[in-house]
Fold:
Amino acid sequence: MGSEMCIRDRHRTAKVAIVLPVYNVERYLKECLDSILAQTYQNFTIFAVDDGSPDNSGQILDEYAQKDQRISVIHKVNGGLSSARNTGLSKIEAYDARFQYLYFLDSDDVLPSDYLWKMVDALEKHRADVAVSSVKAVSYTHLRAHETDSYLVCRLLLEKKKKKKTNSHIL
Structure:
């Protein structure tokens, strides 16, 4: 009973870093951000990376960041999806808060309101390093709902890389 209670307490305090690469998605971005902010699990920070978007995506991110302190916006010159994700990872590593989990979300997807709660719960319950799920997300880029593989990665994996003085990068 004692260890179960400890897991539940940590579940409430485990902090999730969400990396959100953004490029040319002004038509879909507000719904994506609203779906994150409406999560039943509220202990997260969004690292939104405006990858030099030529539309108003960067302005939308700035507006949302002014309203919610959990949103950190990074504006950069366009370098592609991997570059944007790596920029988000670098910002997380420099951030002074500790994160237990890392989540990558596409900026044209909309999450169910209990999604983060279920993912963190599964990770905590099974003491797993990675959780992979198939979630029905709305992807407006593809103009249809589709199954998306999503995953949360335990921050401890990133900490191990940091101790070895290597960088975390997505290819």
The chain has a mean pLDDT of 80.
